[in-house]
Design a protein that fits this description.
Blueprint (H helix, E strand, L loop, with lengths): L3 E14 L2 E7 L12 E4 L11 E9 L4 E7 L3 H6 L7 E8 L12 E6 L6 H10 L5 E6 L9 H4 L4 E5 L6 E2 L6 H5 L4 E5 L2 H13 L3 E5 L15 E4 L2 E4 L6 E3 L4 H4 L2
Parallel strand pairs: 7-8, 7-11, 8-9, 9-10, 11-12
Antiparallel strand pairs: 1-2, 1-6, 2-5, 3-4, 3-6, 4-5, 12-15, 13-14
């Protein structure tokens, strides 16, 4: 897929919760076809401490409107600067990057699992699954009630199950403790979030022989497979998560198969 380097216009920069916000962007040339699971590399300007582009998952896409949304969590000066973007400003992106999730076959029952900012690629994935005629289910995990991100858009696509580590909302524990995840039949599970959570999800899926794909959140510099800082060990050797991923079948990851 051909890559673009393009200045997109900020339409909206909306805060969702403490440290989390969604940037909605538009392209004057129209957006290319974007697949769920792909990401962008965003250029951060006016931040002297930020030298590299920031990799951000594609959160949502509206091809008719020509808009692209990015879910971002403030984690340092680069994302802090992105949180200050206002309507009318430009954000330079290299996109679309990486591979994508494998969409389910007709009639399959699917669960999309995420933790915190790991929700980012799941909305667009859920939207594409819904457009294919399958209702997606979502299992979303958070630290506590105050960290829960708005999820009305997810609910518009299918049932949403919540967990919090302290039990202040939904199931106490992690997404793998949610009864719907643990007890119901699933043909496919998709996951993105902190690595310990993804490993736990993958282990449960492997035990129950459920197809499972995860989107890795490895550190990246170039996003093009040149710098090799995002290499991940797999059963096929060391692969770049920016070009060979970020989406992998858990059976191909050594951190899973060796566990």
């Amino acid at each position: 897929m051909k890559k673009r380097i393009e200045d997109l216009t900020v339409i909206e920069n909306r805060q969702l919760a403490e440290s989390f916000f969604v940037i909605k962007l538009s392209s004057s040339d129209g957006l290319p076809e974007l697949e769920p699971g792909q990401f962008v590399q965003a250029l951060v300007t006016e931040s002297p401490a930020t030298f590299l582009r920031r990799p951000l998952s594609v959160h949502d896409v509206n091809l008719k409107e020509g808009t692209l949304s990015l879910l971002v969590q403030i984690a340092g000066p680069g994302t802090e600067r992105l949180s200050k973007l206002t309507a009318g400003e430009k954000l330079n992106l290299v996109y679309p990057l990486g591979n994508s999730f494998t969409l389910p076959a007709p009639g399959e029952k699917v669960l999309l699992t995420g933790g915190g900012c790991g929700m980012a690629p799941l909305l667009y994935l859920g939207r594409k699954i819904s457009e294919s005629g399958i209702q997606p289910h979502f299992a979303l995990g958070f630290r506590n009630r105050s960290r829960i991100l708005p999820h009305d858009e997810f609910r518009s696509l299918g049932p949403v199950y919540l967990s919090t580590e302290d039990g202040s909302e939904g199931t106490r524990g992690f997404v793998t403790d949610i009864p719907a995840f643990r007890d119901q039949h699933w043909d496919r599970v998709y996951c993105c979030g902190p690595e310990p959570m993804m490993k736990a999800v993958a282990a449960l899926c492997r035990k129950r022989e459920i197809f499972c794909e995860v989107s890795l959140e490895n550190l990246m510099a170039c996003g093009l497979g040149i710098c090799l800082c995002c290499v991940v060990p797999t059963t096929s050797g060391n692969l770049c998560s920016c070009t060979d991923g970020p989406v992998f079948n858990v059976n191909d990851l050594k951190w899973q198969t060796s566990g």
